[in-house]
Design brief:
alpha+beta; 13-stranded mixed sheet; five-stranded antiparallel sheet; elongated; disordered N terminus
């Protein structure tokens, strides 16, 4: 029987589904993200499904991350990029794994109606972990590897709870496998957790600061009057989010860094002009964006700003200010690289009034 087909049969036994869902632990520190080094520490630990099995490894998030383990506010500029839907991570030592797995196997074998293909699958799974029954690229184990207890761990699948597609979320469907301490998982397990995977998860949980642009005039302006917009470098800076996993014999981490590179202004109405015309204001060498308004410049064209061509009437226009952030990462062993740019924006209410003529 082909390896993949055999695995599908094994994994088809509902009572022995071992893809583990993540659960969120209480945050160790739940202060709101405030910049490069402060934020909300939280943990995601391998958790149990109906089998009651729990993974030992935990992903610890720190820095500029969302509270309570939630998804952050960064939107990837690459619509085709998504965080990993699942991965394999350290699970249990040999003795603990034997206790959990043997209990589940015995329970499944005694389940009414557990015969036919499912019963065969359960039997093969038991032989796989007890009697060295394996496949072409998947060796079996003798007595759950208990002779090597403390020398390594069984790794198992973990689902990303923030992945909406259940098929993607459950696509890491190989049986738990053994990895010696200090050794890398076999290459065939492409989804085994790495610093790059942790970097992508840190990206997913990153919380960027609100973008409130300074305007002149502020909040209320006049038709055809240039409105200056700027962000001082002291208002925003790079932010960092770190994801780490620490298990016996396996410790890796990755830090994802976001640096602001540009500001985009969207007036909230087509009856407006932006400066520059693209609405994209680039960051300057000193780290600021735009230029503060100074007295006497009311008739000048701002380097970054906008001009409304009609009144907002009894309402307001929603000015959208979006910062683009360049995202990069570094991790254990000198690994690193770039991730897709991220964006995050906020809106401000702008009242635009007609200029009242005065007759003398």
């Amino acid at each position: 029987m082909p390896v993949s087909e055999s695995r599908r049969i094994l994994l088809g036994a509902g009572a022995l589904t071992l893809a583990l869902s993540l659960v969120l632990a209480e945050p160790a520190y739940a202060a709101g993200p405030t910049g490069k080094d402060k934020g909300a520490d939280t943990e995601q630990s391998g958790g149990g499904d109906s089998t009651g099995i729990y993974a030992a490894a935990k992903i610890q998030y720190s820095g500029a991350v969302a509270k309570d383990g939630g998804t952050g506010n960064v939107t990837s500029s690459d619509v085709n990029w998504t965080p990993p839907p699942c991965w394999y991570a350290p699970y249990l030592g040999a003795k603990d794994f034997k206790k959990k797995m043997s209990e589940q196997i015995e329970s499944a074998k005694n389940t009414p109606g557990m015969g036919g293909t499912a019963g065969t699958a359960i039997g093969e799974m038991q032989r796989h972990y007890e009697d060295e029954y394996g496949w072409t690229d998947t060796p079996g184990y003798k007595d759950y590897n208990v002779e090597k207890d403390g020398e390594g761990m069984f790794w198992a699948a973990v689902e990303n709870p923030d992945e909406p597609d259940v098929l993607k979320r459950s696509s890491c469907n190989d049986l738990p496998f053994w990895v010696d301490n200090g050794e890398a998982p076999p290459a065939r397990y492409e989804e085994a957790v790495t610093p790059e995977i942790l970097a992508a998860l840190a990206y997913q949980h990153m919380q960027l600061p609100d973008t409130k642009v300074t305007l002149a005039p502020e909040a209320t302006t006049k038709v055809n009057l240039p409105t200056w917009a700027w962000l001082d470098k002291a208002v925003f800076n790079e932010v960092q989010a770190t994801a780490a996993i620490n298990a016996p014999g396996f410790n890796i981490q990755a830090t994802t860094t976001a640096k602001p590179v540009s500001l985009k202004l969207e007036p909230g109405t087509p009856d407006a002009e932006t400066f520059p015309a693209s609405g994209e204001c680039a960051i300057k060498a000193d780290g600021s964006i735009g230029e503060p308004y100074a007295k006497g410049k009311s008739d000048e064209t701002p380097p970054c700003g906008l001009k409304y061509l009609r009144s907002s009437g009894n309402g307001t226009f929603k000015l959208q200010a979006t910062i683009t952030w360049k995202i990069s990462w570094t991790g254990t062993g000198g690994a690193g690289g770039d991730l897709p740019n991220g964006t995050f924006g906020t809106t401000q209410d702008i009242t635009v009034q007609e200029i009242q003529a005065v007759n003398r």
